[in-house]
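Support case: user asked for a sample of complex input and structure output to validate their parser. Sending the pair below.
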Amino acid sequence: MNVLITGGAGFIGSHVAVRLLTRGDSVVILDDFNDRYDPRLKEARIAHMFEDGKKPVVVRGDIRDRELVEKTMMEHKIDSVIHLAAWASVQPSIDNPYIYSDVNVNGTVVILEAARKAGVSRIVAASSSSVYGGITEFPFREDMNIMHPISPYAATKASTELMCATWNNLYGIPTTCLRFFTVYGPWGRPEMAIFAFTKAIIAGETIKMRGKETMRDFTYIDDIVQGVIGALDHANGYHVYNLGESDGVPLPRMISALESALGKKATIEEVPLPSGDIPKTLSDITRAKVDLGYRPSTNIEEGTKKFVEWYHEWHDRIFTQTKLD
Ligand SMILES: NC(=O)c1ccc[n+]([C@@H]2O[C@H](COP(=O)([O-])OP(=O)(O)OC[C@H]3O[C@@H](n4cnc5c(N)ncnc54)[C@H](O)[C@@H]3O)[C@@H](O)[C@H]2O)c1
């Protein structure tokens, strides 16, 4: 396949790129390397692919640039699109809703229109567990009514799904939206809890636990990649799938797992969960198991151990050295 991965310098996109290149697909990455978080990490993910002999085509640009997106799809004869580029994270979307709606909604429309014009035969797009918003029935199932978003970010992800459904209805391109549940692992995003807590615990700083009742279905990156590839390979019609671990992990359990992996106790300050964040997420993954052969297999204890190993090996190389050796 000739696969375009939007947001391919990002956390999930870079892992998906490596998996596709390993199995022999051609990969084009479109990413603007923006500074929502430290772009050195994005550069390092790409540099690491090349060091490892994986050679994607890297196009630096914005998914809202219609001409560039159309040219990229045509020039590289793209037949499959994995659309992951977005502004992620709940809290910043409350402070800056415009960039979220612009990139996540308008950018998605650009991708869908360009895919139609380029004759793309399948699309996989990133949604999020945040679309479940104020729902208090667990686990979250794909057929629940998601019209109760509690953050601009969640609303943009629900809109992504609506746009994908609309384009599928109009033009019939097989399209799958994946609701990712709190993804973590090596090369993860620095502002997410597992990364930020690891850094703080090592530095002996206090970590802020947003409610000890808060529960997240933390999902290990390798499991997510398996689900994304499964969705790509099983494309037909329009579908929405939860990709989670189906394990509701209270924050204290995640912190204990990190403490064991780091061999160091955390100093914890409990603070209230900010508005916009969901108190509890838990996925029902029956649909993805049946249709995509999705089989997540990494619990939080194993996953944090792997993350901490990566952190020790890479953090300083990425963030304190200007050039990778
Ligand atoms: N990581 C998670 O826990 C999680 C959970 C739910 C949903 N998601 C969704 O999965 C997708 C990937 O998430 P991630 O964790 O890898 O995030 P990420 O921020 O690491 O990756 C997104 C990438 O998109 C790029 N990008 C953003 N705006 C762009 C634009 N206008 N043009 C081109 N590139 C642009 C960024 O530079 C970044 O490299 C996102 O759509 C996100 O909303 C992630």
